[in-house]
Specification:
This protein is α+β, with helices and mostly antiparallel strands. The protein has two domains: 60 residues, no CATH class; 59 residues, SH3 type barrels. Helix content is 24%, strand content 21%. The chain is built from three helices and five strands; from the N terminus they run αααβββββ. A hairpin with a 6-residue loop joins strand 3 and strand 4. Helix 1 crosses helix 2.
Length: 146
């Protein structure tokens, strides 16, 4: 008889006795005088049933059905399009509105920008250097600068 239990590795064995030895090692010895009490027999049967191995079965866990929806990856934190957007606004001198973190709204056009700040050129008012971390949002105003 060839064993299909993983702990035997295909060698012949004496069947139930090895399962009994494993059940005793896992669940303890049965009460004295009743070698195969009903609880012990149940534990042995459950344990032996969980060890049944079919050589044709793979060890991989069952996969979800092919029709199941796959979870989407979250969008990237940064698209790296900020520089191109600010460059286009600056080259075309498009009027923009900047709302700052304190609620103040300033208008002008972007003359210069770098990693940390934006220079906003305004007509009839002083030009501003504004740190990017102080900007809540930037909106392009309609029309072209005159």
């Amino acid at each position: 008889m060839t064993c299909f239990l993983p702990f035997c590795f295909g060698r012949p064995h004496d069947g139930v006795r090895e399962i009994d030895r494993l059940a005793i090692s896992l669940h303890g010895a049965p009460p004295a005088g009743d070698f195969l009490s009903s609880a012990f027999r149940h534990a042995r049967a459950v344990w032996a049933h969980s060890l049944v191995y079919n050589a044709c079965m793979s060890f991989r866990p069952p996969q979800a059905s092919p029709n199941a929806k796959r979870s989407r990856t979250p969008p990237p934190e940064d698209t790296f399009e900020e520089a191109a957007f600010l460059k286009a606004l600056g080259e075309k001198q498009r009027p923009v509105s900047l709302k700052l973190m304190d609620g103040q709204v300033v208008r002008g056009w972007i003359e210069y920008y770098d990693k940390n700040m934006v220079r906003l050129t305004r007509e009839g008012a002083p030009n501003l250097f504004i740190f990017k971390h102080e900007i809540m949002y930037l909106a392009e105003d309609g029309g072209r600068k005159k």
